[in-house]
Amino acid sequence: MHDTKSLRLNTLFIVIASSFLLLLPYIAKAESSADVELLDRSAKAFSRVVKDVKPAVVHIKVESTVEMSHEYEQFFNNPFFERFFGPQHRFQDPQQRKRQQQGAGSGFIIDKEGYILTNNHVVERADKITVTLSDNSEVEAKLIGADPKSDVALIKIDVDHALPTVNLGDSESLEVGEWVIAIGNPFGLSQTVTVGVVSAKGRSRVGINEYENFIQTDAAINPGNSGGPLLNIHGQVVGINSALYSRTGGYMGIGFAIPINMVKSIKEQLQNNGKVTRGYLGVGIQDVDEGLAESFGLDKSGGVLITDVQEDTPASKAGIKNQDIIVKLGDIELKDTQDLRNRIAQTTPGTDIVLHLMRDGKPIELQVTIGEQPADFGNVAQAVPDENPLSSFGLVLQDLTPDLAEQLGYKGRQGLVISEVTPGSPAAVVGLKSGLLIEEVQKVPVKNLEELKLIMQQSQTKDRVLLRIRMGQNSRYIVLKNN
After folding, report:
1. Exposure string for 302-321, b = 16+ CB within 10 A, e = fewer
2. 242 catalytic per annotation
3. Which CATH code, of 3.20.20.10, 2.30.42.10, 1.10.1740.10, 2.40.10.340, is assigned to 391-481?
């Protein structure tokens, strides 16, 4: 009986296994079909986005007049050329020194009235701007306004028919790793589409614009893409393609786009006023690294250290002081100085904001009324062989005399002049140079070498010192360490 039951079970197992083996090709085929179907849906999704947005992407051609440099003129006025072309080819008429120059880029139509967003560097100094629409018709455009500091420009065309437009999205909600699509006219190849992902957000200190908060992408961006839209998978514009990182002039996998949220406020001001007005605090700032965080009694690095408070500014009126550390602007936690600069600049003058600060290790809140950003926004001292408490850090110092103050541009200030920096010393490692002025040591203002000695005698840390260094009109806090 037991053998019969085992035989039946074995037979059942063989039947099930055989059936499974027979079904395997069909299962694999079904899975393969599902994969292909998924890829097909993804491809069609990209195609639909492009089909909807491409008609609103335009090619921009600019013509400008440039004056030849003195070197260029001398080159063609050289006697060598006169031997072949005669002296009549000398550039004697001022008009002969000028020549026409052409440039190109991309843009996108944002409303039915014909307003187009692009980069400032595409239309800068243009005498004539010509827009080529998706139907290949050409229309002359006029410049409404431009903002060189953010590299954003607004132009306008007038036509007698309806224009396709794009939808502006939310760049703040964009995540690293998301798919993005770039459309533009690289190398004059109109309506070119490239696809990639968001490689990083909040890229600053790239050295392209004064105000930077770039979206980094690996979607191919080449010369001519400038001013075109960067889209999310919903077909919304999340950025203006602005620049590429390249050692060859061509695509190397790193492109930068200006976030559309930054562009929106700039666009409104350009459209309404033809220019951009930025917010202003009136402070000198620097990032807080681990060394500074420890020196100022913070648990971690981050935030923005106040190094200067200028007189009669929104910051001074609100009670902000040197050595304050701004950690939050309203409910927004600040990453670094660039983050604070961008957010203050985008705040409308006259707006009241709350700054969350750390002062002497304790949290405080101050309300500040943002002002309007102003439009305009030596010689090495001789070493004096005087022993000082900072010599172990590689510094030779001397008192700031009236003559030195006049000579080095420190008139009306007080402190110690760095006369010499020992190569390879801690001071040299952090970039200190002769001619700079030490205004504070361990958070205490210092006037002369005698005061410095007293400060260091009372200091609890001899192998670590916090300095406030003045460099022209700005100052920074620097930590020196002896290993």
Report:
1. bbbbbbbbeeebbbeebebe
2. no
3. 2.30.42.10
